[in-house]
Amino acid sequence: MSMWAGQFDAAPNELVAEMGSSIHYDKRLYKHDILGSKAHARMLARQHIIPESDATAIVDGLDQVQREIEQGHFEWKPILEDVHMNIEKRLTDIIGAPGARLHSGRSRNDQVATDLRLYLRDEVDFIRQRIVNVQTSLVTLAKDHTSTILPGFTHLQHAQPIVLAHYLLAYSEMFERDLGRIKDWKARMNYLPLGSGALAGTTLPLDREFVAKELGFAGVCTNSLDAVSDRDFAIELVSLCSIVMMHLSRLSEDIIFWMSQETAWVQLGNEFCTGSSLMPQKKNPDMCELTRGKTARVFGDLTTVLTIMKGIPLAYNRDMQEDKEPIFDAIDTVKLVLAVYAPMIATMRVDKERMYQAASDPALMATDLAEWLVEQGVPFRDAHHRVRDLVTYSKTNSISLDRLTLDQIKISVPEANEECLNLWKPEQSVAKRNIVGGTAPEQAIFQIRTKWGHLLEQ
Where is each Fumarate lyase N-terminal domain found (predicted)? Predict the structure, then answer.
């Protein structure tokens, strides 16, 4: 019979027991469940709710339970449903009556809310460090490519020349915002639910602030209904994971394109690629492709948790048991992909010459001519139209822009002079974009030194 059997005079139907059990996935919370229980026991003794000797026995017994779990000797019993009841039952088997006192002043509702916050708080630190590792790989590569020129794209069409460092640092900026979201998330979620009971608190004189301090929380949840019934902190973390994966997926897409024969701008180390079971010549960027697929998976986890929570009335409902698997899956997935990406980027080899050739089409410098006209006092819309007409003339007559004579340029751009004949070099184009946020090599070097230098010092 389950530990909650009470008025029930029959064991659950086998299928009911199977459907209600969560032990196969929530047992990963065991460390945090034990940590919270030890703090709770010490508080109960401080408040004279249980004897000091019982609290000591509970703490020692929980230490033994943890050793059994970590040494592989612990028997997880599905009939006990979850990690909390399994640990409490084993504790009581070990120390007897004092173990039965541990649950004083708490419910599984506030217990699981506490365990989950403790677990996620630890897991997000792994995510944070792995994001920093990816940033370090990006910045290290960028340092070697502040003058490597390639086409920048809009609408997947060649647009303007950029330097590769500028591109790589763009993703480092995105990941920096992800780190900011983690920091904000930790500040919002770091409050203790324990002591909220099933939904209404308890009549026992708990010292919740003591437990919060013991467990490293900034304070306590101040509304017991909210504390046990919401999972917005978990939803926010899965949303954060989704944004990280979105950034990784976009980076993956570019790498896949850059490795194609159509561009052949980069190569990844063989250890991060796979071959074909049929075609011996293939070298596939499968880790990038899997990242795109796993991004969809994490998005699905977010949708699942939101859908679970959207129609639940206050307070706790059993539906919320189903939040663990998508939450755990999202965390496991983002941690794995981030772990792959840092060393994978470090193996990237760049074909500078092919990139430069692709960026050397003078049409990519058309905007430079329009902006030159603006400097001469021509309104930008007029300048844009004149250069557009010049590009049309170039295509119609099959003459590259950099091979037009000054007289030919003047047909569309009457303000042109000899200086306009020298606007068609990509290195000149990127160098002139020497403003904050621009793609000039000088800006990339400055950003690496001042904003990202700490990553290179690690």
Answer: 6-300
